[in-house]
Design a protein that fits this description.
Layout: E1 38-42, E2 47-51, E3 63-67, E4 85-92, E5 98-104, E6 108-114, E7 122-125, E8 132-137, E9 143-147, E10 152-156, E11 167-171, E12 177-181, E13 186-190, E14 194-202, E15 207-216, E16 222-227, E17 234-239, E18 242-247, E19 252-254, H1 259-262, E20 269-272, E21 279-282, E22 296-301, E23 305-310, E24 316-321
Antiparallel strand pairs: 1-2, 1-24, 2-3, 4-5, 5-6, 6-7, 8-9, 9-10, 10-11, 12-13, 13-14, 14-15, 16-17, 17-18, 18-19, 20-21, 21-22, 22-23
Signal peptide: 1-26
Pfam family, one: DUF6528
InterPro entries: DUF6528, Quino_amine_DH_bsu
Length: 327
């Protein structure tokens, strides 16, 4: 049975020995696909954590990797820019290396070498007022960012230097997340009321951002955005009032398996694991010291199974599959 989530009480229910490049290469002893690890933004410890989905998260050996800015990060003084991490994605750069892209509501944006850590590949502090909320890497090495209070989408010229703060900006009220669509070569973004598709043009040093289309959300206050792994024609979206899938080819919001069970208020993240088809969600949990956080990630396995992965004492905001195809 699915545990109570937020105010919806009663709603039904590869380790670091190798860099995680994708879950398909790993399998259980029985030959079944092994789910990807899960990366969470954990606000009790102000950290990014990668966890083994096959282990009990209460055990220390479930933690595969973690990061928070330190003296060796070359992110400057983060005493005011780090404290509420709210997004993290694994990406491979044009140089073939992997990076964990992170945002913090207090203002820090960063691209962290994975698994090495050390000096960041890029970082900028935008201050607290914009409330950065989403991030993704573009093919040319630049970085797209969404800020909810700033109501903007920006493309930063991260390709031009480790602290390059030049950007191009498009207004989007309540901007909460961005996702680069390599198949269509467009940037998707979600705001309070709209799902927007942008063309990114220009040059790496002088990018442009042009709106191509906008779609009214089926419910208000958009929050999360990402791929439906296994179906390149669909996107996951969440809002304060539900979870949705969008079909790119038709421009329509469409039904999907286990839709009733996946429904909740204030879903902070959703995504499908490419290897197993398992869907994860995070929603605020009643009693958590952080009113927008939870200590668990809900998994929807197969046609009718559920599982809860609990990290004791945690204040998890977003969770994502630690796999590029799945996030």
């Amino acid at each position: 049975m699915r545990v109570t989530r937020g105010i919806l009480a009663g709603v039904s229910a590869c380790l670091l020995a190798a860099t995680v490049a994708g879950p398909a290469a790993a399998a259980t002893a029985a030959g079944r696909p092994r789910p990807a690890p899960i990366i969470v933004t954990e606000q009790a410890g102000d950290r990014i954590v990668v966890l083994d989905t096959t282990k009990r998260w209460a055990n220390s050996n479930a933690t595969l990797w973690s990061w928070r800015p330190g003296a060796d990060s070359d992110t400057g003084d983060t005493s005011t820019s780090w404290g509420l991490p709210d997004d993290a994605r694994l990406r491979t750069g044009a140089d073939g290396r992997q990076y964990v892209l992170v945002t913090d509501s207090y203002g820090l944006l960063a691209s962290v070498p994975y698994p090495d850590k050390g000096p960041v590949a890029w970082s900028v502090d935008v201050g607290r007022s914009p409330n950065p909320h989403g991030i993704d890497l573009l093919p040319d090495g630049n970085i797209a960012v969404a800020a909810s209070n700033g109501s903007w989408i920006r493309v930063y010229t991260a390709s031009q230097g480790r602290h390059s703060d030049t950007y191009v900006e498009a207004a989007l009220p309540g901007a909460h997340e961005v996702w680069w669509d390599a198949r269509l070569t467009v940037l998707w973004a979600i705001g309070d009321h709209l799902l927007v598709k942008y063309a990114v043009g220009g040059t790496p040093a002088a990018p442009t951002l042009t709106q191509q289309a906008a779609y009214t959300l089926p419910s208000n206050w958009g929050h999360d955005l990402g791929p439906v792994a296994g179906d390149p024609d669909r996107l996951w979206l969440t809002t304060v009032y539900g979870v949705h899938q969008f079909q790119k080819s038709t421009g329509k919001f469409v039904s999907f398996p286990r839709q009733r069970e996946l429904y909740a208020l204030n879903i902070k993240s959703v995504g499908t694991d490419a290897a197993t088809g398992t869907v994860l969600e995070t929603t605020p949990k009643a009693g958590n010291p952080c009113s927008w956080c939870t200590d668990q990630v809900d998994l929807f396995v197969g046609a009718d199974q559920t599982e809860e992965k609990v990290l004791p004492g945690a204040q998890i905001y977003r969770a994502r599959w630690f796999d590029e195809e799945s996030s």
